[in-house]
Amino acid sequence: MSLLDITDLTVTYSTDSGTVHAVNDVSFSIDEGVNYGLAGESGSGKSTLAEAVLGLLPSNGSVESGSIEFQGRDLTGLSERERRDVLWEDIAYIPQSAMDSLDPVMSTGAQIRQAIQTHRNVTDDKARSRVRELFEIVGLDPDRIDDYPHEFSGGMRQRVTIAMALALEPDLIIADEPTTGLDVIVQDKIIDKILEIQDRMDSSLLLITHEIGVIAETCDELSILYGGKAMEQGSVDNVLVNPTNPYTMGLKNSFPEIEEGDQDPVSIPGSPPNLSEAPGACVFKDRCPFATEECEASHPDLVDLPNRNHRSACHHVTKAAQMRRDATDPETWGIPDSHDESDRGEVLLETDGLEKYYEQSQSLLEQLRGNDPNYVRAVDGVSLRVRRSEILGIAGESGCGKSTLGETIALLKQPTGGEFVFDGEPYEHYVDGNMREFRRKVQIIFQDPFDSLNPRQTVRQLVGEPLTIHDYRTDERERAIIETLEKVGLTPARKFLDQYPHQLSGGQRQRVAVAKALVLDPDFLICDEPASMLDVSLKVNLLNLLRELADTEDIGIVYISHDLASLVQVSDRLAIMYLGRVIEEGDVESIAAEPKHPYTTSLLAAAPEKDPTVDRDRVLLDGEPPNPVDLPSGCVFAPRCPKAEDACRENEPGLDTVRDGEHRAACYFPDGEIPADDPADDRSGSAYGNPEFSSPASGDSASD
Amino acid sequence: MSEFQRFLAKRLAISIVLTLVAVSVIFVVLRLLPGSPFESLVTAGNLSQQQITEIRAMYGLDQPMWRQYLSYLQSILLFQFGYSILRSQPVWGVLAPRLVNTLILLVPALVTTAVLSSLLGMYVGWNRGSKLEKLSIITTTFLRSTPVFITGILFVIVFAYNLELVPAFGMRSISASPEGYVETFASLDFLHHYILPFTVSVLYYSGDFLLLARNGVVEKRGSEFLKLHRAKGLSEMQQLARAGRNSMLPILTYFALRLGMIFQGLILLEVVFGWPGIGRELVLAIQQQDYPLVQAAVFIMALAVIVANLVADVLYAYFDPTVSTSGGGAA
Q1: Strand pairing category for A35-39 and A221-226
Q2: Confidence of residue A618 (pLDDT cuts 50, 70, 90)
Q3: Tens digit of each residue's pLDDT (9 = 90 or more) over B118-129
Q4: How many CB pairs below 8 Å do chains A and B form together?
Q5: Is the complex ipTM higher than 0.90?
Q6: Which CATH number belongs to the domain containing residue A39 in this structure?
Q7: A196 and A85 in one domain?
Q8: Per the record, where are the segments of Basic and acidic residues compositional bias (chain A) (predicted)?
Q9: pLDDT digits (tens, 9 = 90+) for A172-217
Q10: Looking at beta carbons, which residues of chain B come within 8 Å of A96?
Q11: For a Cys-Cys bond, which of A377, A457, A566, B172 suits A461, CB 3.0-4.6 Å?
Q12: Are the beta carbons of A87 and B232 separated by less than 8 Å?
């Protein structure tokens, strides 16, 4: 008997503007000890499904029909009280946003203890020792059980929620996007942890995510959801290797992969379906390039494919092989193939040893004593060059200073040292009364499309505002706005002019944010994680848009992200940051193909692989980045580096320690080269870089 | 010195500076008022010029302003409030009983309403959209926005004159002549007089707490951590308790502020119910320019507000572990 049996589940939400059909006739079952994946874009109903199983649907949501049988018991028919007994005891839950899902005013240990004591009659002492045990299992320091959530980092908080889910050794763990919002390296560690624990406890896992790669690596079976319908389901090996449904193909193709750096990912154009009516036609027909009249008539049933654990809901299953071939071609999806590398133009922005230090607050006493304050070195001697029509990707974990770097080169923050030249004029020129000119030429796109737009302004006002501020094209305001909206793909533009941000989808909002930046025809664009909140297909749309802008409009772009896969897609050159320093820099192709710095290697290795047949070597970095106030001497990465030797701890390698044409890295023992017999003695030798260039990273390395 | 002690020392220092500023402002403002405490006596012709000079010398009012200020500072910081000019008795002797009368009325009322209306507020916030929510908001907002003397008079008319359940006026019966606080307050007669003004002040304060608690819970209701609490199998009431616990801060702040302001009394309420509190006394003292009395009263009020804020700051750190005690943002 299977553990969880979901049969024809239909969930609706009643809203002011009618009923939303979030989940429509979805069936699947999870056997004991099986990892089951649910994939899909936002709005596909995957979270709703999890909430329905847990009985956590918001008050306006209800299970219309169908059944959820858990160990033979129908969960939909349980009373509130019976359900509370099942929750956590049998089904535990790992929530989506680790940052907000712990009670901020309750110590982490107490929250886990509460979960235990709600269901078991155990003494405080026993519960406490269980919590210590759990902390140990998930790799947290058991002495920290009395710490509050804000004292933990995002990844550690997610470990706390995992520890909580394990507390009662449930039969089923539902993990709703457990790694979204975490850095790749942390994400990789968390997934590794979940798998390891689950192996030990032999429980089943229902993993919900929009990252196909995560599912490919962790799950045995999966369902692909779209518009509340299961589009394709079956064993991971079958579905992801040989998808038979156009949607799965699109989803898989839009998931960028590092190895295919030079190939544009193919996105699915259009936006998710309107769910205000129960689906009559195939839910994917509007975006499907293979749609025929048959697809208009009815939504296809899931069809069992012969001889394997694989079901697909498509009228054209029989033509799957043909569709698979076509689906990799962007033109099939109506996207013009416009990948002509334009020549990179003149240097637009140049920094040399740029620094941004933050002084730490000092007590009065220390100030009187005249002690030098401590500095947080957010940006520590970064030398960059960006040309016209070039995209420079900046990658790194959170806290590596990449956002501060972005804000500093946008001059939103004053640099505390180093040279800064933009468009031939130095920093002083702009500070000295020419800031407005700079602000027009340089635009920044922020991370969160939900917060960076004023909710009380229409699109017209939002996009038009910069024009008013800079008195730019004010006589043809409306035209400028419409042109820009069309440029970013919001067509027809007139339709959007009078809408407010809340009426737009996430992808459209981000496009408005981009339009806002582009309306002034800037020369330079700084994008700070613009895609981190977006679904894969929207993300790919945005990346392609930026690429196109760089190619056609001749603007320079700095793209800051922790997502190396998308950086590789979009950038011409990459700079990898660690603790305020650039530790590797070079052309995308050469970095992706042969990374030199061990940190880059581990970043690349942490990205999940969407092909389930490929076994990936995990390079799990120990610990977290050190405290930026109290940096270790020598190479800052040495404490976490698998290859670190004494030499690394003594002297800090400069960015020119290793160089191969444009490709440079700050490492004595670069990857991909055979080390000499006794590296410590021979570190100035040619195998480890040209001795002429082994100056510190903050030196004149940008001038060559 | 631990982080918390340093934080405490800093807040204490700030409080002391604030107190000094408040005390100085009182001094200056009173001196800026036209006339003097003896004006009325002079115009009535009851005092000769020589008598006035003598009295002024006795109170030290003939000395230069800075000397007056210094001796004022010295005394007030030692809690030496001097003699009331008009009542010819020590200021503390006039103020202390009035202050106690006010506090015994308003502190229990404030605590009662803070507890009851916050709980009710949390409950209605959790059950958003219910009839009870609308009803409670409308009622308390109405009570809050009606001037307290109107509500007071209404209650007096209904309960004292029409129903004759409680006396309309005063703190004790006219015939009672109790000695000391215990005898005054520990009696049924007092309770009888107490109940009406107490009820009115409870109702008067209730709206703010109810709305604060409700908004806090409404805001927290959709949050992720409550979803996790729910997934853990906590009952509805346990979840509500967590939501309430998480929205304590604004309530706490408001409670501390109100507690400090209670020392000013509710002047209108004291007038309506003939309650011999500090508010009424202050109004009289200002009218008659009784410098020492006004200075002392205002000093006590300012001090109360400052101390209440200090207490709130300290409680913050206890109630919300994320509040950074170092003054800077969280790391």
Answers
A1: parallel
A2: low
A3: 999 999 999 888
A4: 79
A5: no
A6: 3.40.50.300
A7: yes
A8: 646-665
A9: 999 988 877 677 777 888 888 888 887 788 888 999 988 888 888 8
A10: 224
A11: A457
A12: yes
